[in-house]
Design a protein that fits this description.
By secondary structure, the chain is mostly helical. The protein is built from eight helices and two strands, in the order H-E-E-H-H-H-H-H-H-H. A hairpin with a 2-residue loop joins strand 1 and strand 2. The model has no long low-confidence stretch (mean pLDDT about 85).
Length: about 210
């Protein structure tokens, strides 16, 4: 058993029932932390990053236990890049050497990121199909590959990160529903709405700077 999952074993006990399915304490705690994280992100508050680290580690354990290895591995990436994002928001600079601000990608950068995703999605799906026992390799690979791009955009304060999260969260809703993680389904439905709010809020900030 994975050492982290073994250490968190007591949290896998049922805490409640949602739509007839048990919800563990681990999923409940991760849910609350993740909601708080996005609220801080929308407000461009760096306190969202330590919450991202904690919630990512909890979701790693949850997803690994449900054989969602792509999404589980992604949570470790999230925890690592959250530390990087935290530093970026506190000390990072843009190309001119000034402090990072909310801004938009150039048209060229958007096409480059789309091309990267077009390569990363099938590569990730092939890797999961070949080297893991997941039953949804391509489905699992889509949010995995797209989330890497979204997290980088968030760390560098690009407005477009919210558009990526809207797509990722919609796909994740169907994936987690299939796996019976119903509280996490609810979380990602909320994430879709919060991503729309975040996109609008950051777009306003980008226009005023």
């Amino acid at each position: 058993m994975n050492p982290l999952i073994e250490a968190l074993e007591p949290l896998f006990a049922p805490a409640a029932t949602v739509w007839g399915a048990p919800v563990t304490w681990l999923e409940l705690v991760a849910f609350v932390l993740a909601i708080a994280m996005v609220v801080f992100n929308i407000r461009v508050n760096p306190l969202g990053w330590p919450l991202a680290i904690l919630s990512s580690l909890l979701y790693f354990a949850l997803f690994w236990d449900n054989r969602l290895y792509g999404d589980a591995s992604l949570q470790i990436f999230f925890a690592v890049i959250a530390a990087w994002g935290w530093w970026q928001w506190l000390r990072g600079t843009d190309a001119s050497g000034g402090a990072l601000r909310v801004r938009r990608l150039s048209a060229r950068a958007r096409w480059v990121l789309l091309a990267i995703f077009a390569l990363a999605w099938p590569a990730t799906g092939l890797f999961l199909r070949t080297y893991s026992d997941t039953d949804v390799p391509w489905w699992d690979a889509f949010p995995t590959a797209a989330s890497v791009i979204g997290q980088w955009l968030l760390g560098r304060k690009y407005v477009e990160n919210w558009a990526v999260w809207i797509v990722v969260n919609i796909v994740a809703v169907t994936l987690f529903a299939y796996k019976g993680l119903l509280l996490t389904v609810l979380l990602y439905v909320v994430f879709v709405a919060m991503s729309v709010v975040g996109w609008r809020a950051w777009a306003r900030l980008a226009r005023t700077r």
